[in-house]
Amino acid sequence: xxxxxxxxxxxxxxxxxxxxxxxxxPFVMENGLLHIAGxxxxxxxxxxxxxxxGENQSIEEGQAAARLCAINLMAQMKAALGSLDRVTRIVKLxxxxxxxxxxTDQPKVANGASDLMVEIFGDAGRHARSAVGVTVLPLGVxxxxxxxxxxxxxx
Length: 155
Description:
This is RidA family protein. The structure is a single chain. This protein is of the alpha+beta class. The protein has one domain (about 5-15, about 25-150): CATH 3.30.1330.40. It contains three helices and five strands. The chain has helices at about 5-10, 60-80, 105-120; strands at about 25-30, 35-40, 85-100, 130-135, 145-150. Strand 3 (about 85-100), helix 3 and strand 4 form a beta-alpha-beta unit. The chain is globular, with a radius of gyration of 15 Å. The two termini are about 15 Å apart. The model has no long low-confidence stretch (mean pLDDT about 95).
């Protein structure tokens, strides 16, 4: 089954890949690795999820935000590679969680992104990961996720 078919089966429609909001590029392809800039939780209507874990966001809401970030990462993968079937491995996710000093469940929040990568890419979606708590993220979002992805040469 193709990755596009897995996305359809999961009820996921990839959005248009987000343009950079500052002086950077959305991705860099180098030596078979695709480095994707941090993605934030844009919803289908273009609005952003906002909040802070341990203050006004639950773990489940954080996981939903991380899942949206993962969907936006896949949109960038598709923009870079043309087809998600070129992805050979999700190498690493970096998950940044806006949280209060006493919130320590960043790994549970990060599972929102990690679980989706495994659901869509199977074993190739298993990855190394960092889950880090930070005081604040751009635009007041609760989660930001970046990625390193291995890819195959064009078909």
